[in-house]
Write a structure and sequence with these properties.
The chain is globular. With 169 residues, the protein is an alpha+beta fold. It has a 5-stranded antiparallel β-sheet with strand order 1-2-3-6-7. Strands 4-5 form a two-stranded antiparallel ribbon. The chain is built from 3 helices and 7 strands, in the order αβββββββαα. The two termini are 30 Å apart. The structure holds ligand GNR and nickel (II) ion. Nickel (II) ion (NI) binds next to α2.
Amino acid sequence: MAILPILCYPDPRLHKVAQPVQTVDARIQALVSDMLATMYDAHGIGLAATQIDVHERLVVIDVSEERNEPLVLINPEIVWASPDKHVGDEGCLSVPGIYDGVERAAAVHVRALDAQGQSRTLEAEGLLAVCVQHEMDHLMGKVFVEYLSPLKRNRIKTKMLKQQREAHE
Ligand code: GNR
Ligand code: NI
């Protein structure tokens, strides 16, 4: 298991579109295990492969209090989204220190392969529904700050670049 570096906004690689996983083999299983280790190490509730510069449709999630309920979603697809929306504050490991409200479907049903390559359907609501949608956006090259106003987004971009410059010194 390895802890992998997480890309930080506004890194252009965060906007690449992930390709479907062809076969759930040992390479994918090793990647999943590294992604779980990286997510737990960073105290995140989710991680998309895009964030570790791997552009394949792979997501790990754990919204449990005890951090012992890992979920692995390979080639996830939303098969149903509730018409009712919910606005919740979101954060992102790729945009550290920034939290703001994003409107999402309140509940979603997601079809995905698990770490064994088995097809499953996940029924998500609450924080899990938010997290699933946030991670699936990453796979499409979308970061949550893109839902904010251009003014907020530009302020965030400037702040991130300044942080990154200072971290280099
Ligand atoms: O750790 C995370 N917390 C979080 C909180 C509210 C809404 C979404 C998230 S996902 C984020 C981890 C992350 O960046 N995943 O891509
Ligand atoms: Ni994120």
